[in-house]
Every structure is written in C-alpha cells, then in structure tokens.
Amino acid sequence: MSSKTKIVVLHMKEIIYTAVFVVLAIVLILLLAFMFFPRSREAKAEEEKYMPGVYTSTVTLNNTPLEVEVTVDESHINSIRFSNLDETVTTMFPLIQPAMEDIAEQIYQQQSLEDIQYSDENPYTSQVIINAIDDALKKAAAK
Predict the structure, then answer these.
(1) pTM for the complete prediction?
(2) Which of 8, 37, 67, 128 is the most buried (most CB within 10 A)?
(3) 68 near 59, Cβ under 8 Å?
(4) Alpha carbon distance 102, 67 (integer Å)
C-alpha cells in the first residue's frame, strides 16, 4: 500500500479574495431578495393608514360653515387648513386661525390626534377644530 501524499499550497491572497467575494455575493443575494420579494400584507396594512387625497369636514360658527381641509398620503397627514375662511369669520373669531395653526403644527409632528395641547385662551375653539380634523381623518381612513 503506497499512498501518495499530495501537498496543496494556497496563497493567503487567494483565500482572502475568495472570502470577500463570497461575502459580497451573499450580501447581494440578500439585498435582491429583500428588494424584489413582496412585503407581507400585514406590513403594508400597518404602513397604509389613509387613502391618499383631500378630505373635508364642516364646522359651523355663527351660522357660517367653515370647511376644514385635511390632505393625506398613505401614511402621513400633510396639510390641515381652512378652505373657505373669509374676513368676516376672522373678524368675529380672531383666535381661530392661530388655534388652527398651532393644532396643525402639533399634528404634523405627532402624526396623530393624541395628546394635542391647546391654549387656555381658546379651549372650546380648539376642541371644535380637533373634532373637525378627526371627522376628516375618519373619512380618509384606509379600510
């Protein structure tokens, strides 16, 4: 029984290059898998809170209807404003526009109607505005 011993000589550079290319290939395959395979339906449902569009709700002040306009995309509240605020309403209710701007800024930051702080000067006006925004967001809610 004669055994012939074979000696294999590997250069360290070749081993390192091979290991680096194998790691890069694995990373590329994982990247492609995450990019092109569809996400689960549960993950999409969590991201899609709203149907994109512009939704309105009406507030009546002193027999004058005001439209609160809320613009949303799939997951964010983008804009909140009065769409038909005229000079007579701002004269009769001078704090309504500053209250709307303050509430809208808080909603933009939180993306929620939870824990909205409003000033002690106009709590009822702020509550009416928040209720109108809530009505518009209910219309926008994804089903």
Answers:
(1) 0.66
(2) 128
(3) yes
(4) 17
